[in-house]
Every structure is written in C-alpha cells, then in structure tokens.
Amino acid sequence: MDLKQLRYFLAVVEAGGFTAAAARLGVAQPALSIAIRKLERMLDLELLHRGTRRVTPTSEGEVLAGHARALLERAEAAELQMRELRGLLKGEVRIGLPSILGSYFFPPLLMAFKHRHPGLRLSVQEAGTRSLLNMIRAGALDLGVVTSDAELDDLETHPFLREEVVVHAGRSHPLASVERIDFATLFEHDLVVARSGYFLREFIDHHAATLGVEPRIAFETNLIPLAETIVRQGFGVTCVLRMVSEQTRDPELVAIPFVTPVYLDFSLAWQSGGYLSRADRAFLDFMREQTPWRRDGGVLG
C-alpha cells in the first residue's frame, strides 16, 4: 500500500464516484478502477459499495479513509517542510553582536546553526548595543543583540539571556581580597572600560551618574585580551559578565560580585513588522529553540 493508492481511494470516497474522482486526479477512469481493485485485493477487504448512482465506503473503507487522510496530511506537511528547507540551501543571516557575547556566548550557537543549515551564510558584525539598535532600525542588520532595558518599543524581541555582572581584578590588586564590592568602592579605583555605546560602558556610566561621581577611567578599549592583560597586571579593574570568568578560568584574575547581585538581560531584536528572510526566520526559530525564556526571567533548562 502506497500513498498513491491511498490518494486514489480517498478521491473516490470524497467524490462519491469513479468518474468525478478520475477527473479530479487527472487520470483515466479505467486506470483508477484497476488501482482500487488492486488495493482491495492486497488488503483482502471490500472497501467500496459500488452503487448505480453513488459509490460509498464500506465500514472497512471508512476506517481506511480516516487513516488515509491522516497519512496524506502528514506526507503533505513533510513535503512542505522539505520545500522550505530547499529554500534554505542559500541565504544570509546578518546579525550584530556585542564583542563579549560574540566571544563567550555565541560561538557554539553559531556553529550549531551552521551545522544544521550548512548552505546559509552568517554575516556577523561586532558593535556596541547603541550602534546595533541604530543599524537594525536602518535595515543594515536583520537581527541584533541588545540589552533588554534599551528603548525597544519599535522592535520585536526574543529575550534569551540573563547574566550577572562582576568585577575583575588582578591578584595583586587591593580589591583582590574583597569578597563583595559596592559601586562606591568600585569608583575609588582606576577602571578599564569599553568605548561609549557598549553595554558595559553604559553600565558603568549609569551607576556613576546615580552616585554623582566621575569614574576614574584609566584605559578605554574594546579589545578583550588587552583589557584582561591590563587588569591582570594590576593597572585597573573592569566589569565583565560572569561567563567571562567561568570560561577563562584565569588564576591571575579574581571575580568579585556586587554586594547586591547585578544582572543584565539580553534580547535578540529585529524590526517590528519588517521583512525577515527565510534564513533570518530559521535563525530566530533556532534561537527560540536553544534559549527558551521563562516568564519570570531567565533561560529554561
């Protein structure tokens, strides 16, 4: 029994006769009648009442018709999905990432997506969250990672990450022995910070403004290895995401949490109502699958 036989049988049942079914299928009526007879012989069942005016299914035929509908629907769904996948043999995803997440969070996700869709091209651009927002709005990027506290009313978002912010200090730095730190103490020391427009720089600027102090910026760089070297040598401290400490495991660096733990939420953003290609939608679906978000905040799993 194959799908063609089931399609022929269901067409006869739904049309109520061989002539109408043959016309619907675009086949000769004798060929259709032969196909149904072969199906009945194979199953050793009479599937149709062949009346003079109308053909109706027997009780056994009714059962088979139900199975046939389900099987043909599943086959059609599979064919549709395969057509969609054929549409993903080529395409490009333009995504913007902040440097820290691009270095410490996204590599395994990007490689897993590329493995699933080897024909797609990933164009990844590094920039600060403010620049990424502007690029998304201007259509220069399809998707971009932003902090969830940004002005996002005109964008659609998928929250995917909540991460703690900690202070990195070198082993020789006076803060290395501190178990927890507050912002007032942090701003008494030289800082290594990112350029303006990056989320950790905005984090520093916001909390300094809240305390009414001017942060002591000793070095300004977006080069993560350079910032780590400066901190390791004791020339300043910096704020990083907890994942940086967990992944680098540098014995010369100490991660110091804040007295009241501080977290940042991140979202994947795109233009509200804007066009997303099949490749973009595939990446968005992949992110939703890999980073489901609880209603109370945070990644499931």
UniProtKB/TrEMBL annotation:
InterPro entries: HTH-type_LysR_regulators (IPR050950), LysR_HTH_N (IPR000847), LysR_subst-bd (IPR005119), WH-like_DNA-bd_sf (IPR036388), WH_DNA-bd_sf (IPR036390). It comes from the Bacteria. Coiled coil: none annotated. Keywords: DNA-binding, Transcription, Transcription regulation. Residues 1-58 form the HTH lysR-type domain. It holds the Pfam family LysR_substrate. Belongs to the LysR transcriptional regulatory family. This is LysR family transcriptional regulator. The lineage of its organism: Bacteria, Pseudomonadati, Pseudomonadota, Gammaproteobacteria, Chromatiales.
